[in-house]
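Milestone M4 deliverable, item 7.
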Amino acid sequence: MMTSLLQSLQDPHLVASFQRCCGLFLQVEERLAGGGSSSHGNASGSQGPASVTKSSESTNGEQRYEINGSYQYPHGQDRKDGHAVAGCAVKIVMYLGQASKDIIKWPRPLSPPVVKLETRVDAEYGMPSTHAMAATAISFTFLIATIYRYKYSVAFGLMAATVLSALVSLSRLYTGMHTVLDVICGVLITAVLMALTYPFWNILDNFQLTSPLTPIIAIVLPFLMSYNYPELDHYSPTRGDTTIILGVASGCIVGFWMNYQYGRTYEPTGSLPFEIPSITVEVVSLAIARFLIGIVVIVATRQVVKTISLKVLYAWFDVAGHDMEAKKRLKIEVPYKFATYSSIGFSATVIVPLLHQLLKL
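Output delivered:
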């Protein structure tokens, strides 16, 4: 009974049915060749990359697809808003999810019958859906961390968190990247991890902000986790994506720690729960200005650190600068991506708020 249910949830035809309900159809058309034989595009059911087009014309043997139809405090971060907890929770969830893919090695749904709208990650395995895991972890961690701290409707917060995680999860079915079982397992794994770790959130938050060991742990441990990521017999972007996630989280944690150590963490006054500021033209304008400044700093940080780290690693390992495949090597990919994205996390939590203050934003 259970085996039958799991097999039905893993059936790519179930994903294809959902796609058709959303107006996304796969059409494999036949055209007679000169010898009278016919050709079927990807009819063997292999997982080849798909292209999307709205053209009504089809070429010989080609598949044709048709689609129808924050408010930020002025003097730094509020230490009790769960920044450190959220960063750590997402880091743990995403690493376990990404690593599980390359350990379980369940393929993504077959095309046909599924329409594939993404090709970059098609080389990755599918179980579990890390998009579903991340959406669930971020939305519900934010809800739990703020529900007793700010005045807002609990029902509205729960509905918003549920809708966000559901939309992201359903989008993975729509794009043909995951089976229903992948998505369900991703949500359930995250729910279990959150339930198991919730009693320790405050302890972990205080440790990350106050311990002198935080910078060392936040950098060394994630780097080793990335470097010792499960190996595959072929290249997959999973390791690089995991390194990016861990790098950003590490940089943010170090940034939160530094802000707290140097007294740049905002401590709200008054009694709980706090009022949420009204959304006015001034608040929206301020948020847009802060966002644009943050984007400029982050893009500049990425470009500078990526360029420098690649040049250093290429020189260290005696690799030609034009060798694009070299970036996929373990000894180059992990260090340069970790350095780049941990710098981005640090800039977002330390440099950007400092600029906001200097510019009186």
